[in-house]
Amino acid sequence: MIITKEQVAQAIITELENNYNEIDIETGLFKNYNTPSRIVWKSNKEGFYPDIKISQTNGKTNLYEIELTNKINENKWRLFSMFAKLHRGSFYVVIPESMIQKVKAFIADKNFNNIKLLSVPI
User: Fold this and answer.
1) How many structural domains is the chain composed of?
2) I need a labelling partner for 105 at 20 to 30 A (CA). Which of 8, 21, 57, 97 fits?
3) Cα atoms found within 13 Å of the Cα of residue 95, Cβ hemisphere only
């Protein structure tokens, strides 16, 4: 069985909606939600859209990147990690279970300290 990005996103959104009252959910993966704004580097204007952006009434913002392939986009992850940290939130990366060790080593090597890993069985 192949798991899609949309299936993973729906599971995350359902979990968040069931556990938090005052949150704003943005995602470009479904039509019934607003698409999050592009997050950009000020230095070169390069930017990316997070898969899911969660804004809480207390000012915290969490970002979610669902990466079901073996790709690691260092620039995107660094940007999202810094953005979440500036907004008192966390950056979650959802990856296949088979990538856990590779991604943990990458995170340690690059000294990313605001990334939280979630895994899905694929």
Assistant:
1) 1
2) 8
3) 19
